[in-house]
């Protein structure tokens, strides 16, 4: 059983990359956990400031899908702590001369923002 992700959850870029990942989708307007709006379905994700050995300034967008098999809202699966996605980002190499480079990194919900409601 995993906690359902709510507004204010923590989304992190996973090692070996670093950067800032942000959920740009709105949570449900009719599903709340601990008085916080919950996330269901497909979330839009934005990554900025991404870096990996030999490259910096990565940015990109992608989606993260809810994986709950038992909790839904309007047919959309709840997003759970531990759900993750692979996001393609484009940045610049640190070599001379610099050039554009694209790589894939993982983002993961590492803290759902609440612990009172769990599901699978």
Global mean pLDDT: 97
Low-confidence stretches: none
Distance between the termini: 5 Å
Query: What gross morphology would you assign?
Result: elongated
Derived from helix and strand composition plus strand pairing, the structural class reads: mainly beta
* Rg, alpha carbons: 16 Å
Counting structural domains, the number is 1
Helix content: under 10%
Q: Main sheet?
A: 6 strands, antiparallel
* Oligomeric form: single chain
- Strand arrangement within the widest β-sheet reads 2-11-10-7-6-3
Number of helices: 0
Q: Please write the string of helix (H) and strand (E) elements.
A: EEEEEEEEEEEE
Strand content: over 45%
The total strand number stands at 12
Quick description:
This protein is mainly β.
Describe the protein in words:
There is one protein chain. This protein is mainly beta. The protein has one domain (2-119). 0% of the residues lie in helices and 55% in strands. It contains no helices and twelve strands. The protein has strands at 2-3, 10-13, 18-23, 32-33, 36-37, 42-52, 55-65, 72-73, 76-77, 84-93, 100-111, 118-119. The protein has a six-stranded antiparallel sheet with strand order 2-11-10-7-6-3, with no helix packed on it. Strands 1-12 form a two-stranded antiparallel sheet. The chain is elongated, with a radius of gyration of 16 Å. The chain starts with a strand and ends with a strand.
Secondary structure blueprint with pairings:
Layout: E1 2-3, E2 10-13, E3 18-23, E4 32-33, E5 36-37, E6 42-52, E7 55-65, E8 72-73, E9 76-77, E10 84-93, E11 100-111, E12 118-119
Antiparallel strand pairs: 1-12, 2-11, 3-6, 4-5, 6-7, 7-10, 8-9, 10-11
């Amino acid at each position: 059983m995993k906690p359902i992700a709510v507004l204010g959850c923590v989304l992190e870029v996973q090692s070996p990359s670093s950067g800032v990942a942000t959920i740009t989708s709105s949570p449900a307007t009719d599903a709340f956990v601990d008085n916080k709006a919950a996330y269901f379905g497909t979330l839009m994700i934005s990554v900025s400031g991404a870096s990996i050995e030999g490259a910096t300034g990565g940015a990109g967008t992608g989606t993260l899908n809810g994986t709950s098999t038992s909790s839904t809202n309007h047919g959309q699966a709840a997003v759970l702590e531990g759900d993750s996605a692979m996001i393609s980002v484009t940045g610049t190499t640190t070599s001379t001369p610099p050039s554009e480079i694209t790589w894939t990194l993982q983002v993961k919900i590492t803290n759902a923002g609440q612990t009172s409601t769990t599901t699978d």
